[in-house]
Amino acid sequence: VELDWPQVQALFADNEVGLKQPSSLRGEVVCSYGPWQVCRGLVVEDGHRLIGYVPRGLRHAQLERLLPDA
Q1: Which is nearest to 39 in space by CA: 48, 31, 49?
Q2: In whole angstroms, what is the distance from residue 64 CA to residue 69 CA?
Q3: What is the pLDDT of residues 7-23, one digit of tens each?
Q4: CA distance 44 to 23
Q5: In angstroms, what is the C-alpha Rg of the chain?
Q6: Rounded distance, CA 5 to CA 25, Å?
Q7: What are the C-alpha distances in Å from 58 to residues 1, 26, 55, 63?
Q8: For residue 12, with 0-12 CB atoms within 10 Å meaning exposed, 13-18 middle and 19 or more buried, which class applies?
Q9: DSSP 3-state assignment of 13?
Q10: pLDDT confidence of residue 70
Q11: Is 57 helix (H, G, I), strand (E, B) or coil?
Q12: Residue 40 phi, psi (nearest 5)
C-alpha cells in the first residue's frame, strides 16, 4: 500500500491511519513511502483503515525529526 507523508506520520504516531481511497487489498500488506518499505500493516474495514505493525520503540509523534538534514 503506497502512503503519502502525512499518512506515514499518522501511522508512526498512532499505529493506524485512514486510507483516502478504499484499498482493494485486504489482510496483511507492505506499506511503502516512495521507494522505501516502511512497515507491514493490516487493511481492515472494507479497505478504509490500515493498522500498522510498527514496533513500539519506533512510534513517535515527531517523525519529521528522523529525516536527514537537507
Answers
A1: 31
A2: 10
A3: 888 888 888 898 888 88
A4: 9
A5: 12
A6: 20
A7: 19, 24, 5, 9
A8: buried
A9: helix
A10: 45
A11: helix
A12: -100, 160
The mean pLDDT value for 50-69 works out to: 64
How high does pLDDT run on average in the chain? Answer: 80
pTM for the complete prediction?
0.71
pLDDT at 68 over 70: no
- Asked if 59 and 15 touch (Cβ cutoff 8 Å), the reply is yes
Contact 23, 47 (CB under 8 A): yes
Percentages helix, strand, coil for the chain (3-state, rounded to 5) are: 25, 35, 40
Query: Is 20 buried (19+), middle (13-18) or exposed (0-12) by CB count in 10 A?
Result: exposed
Q: Which amino acid is at 27?
A: G
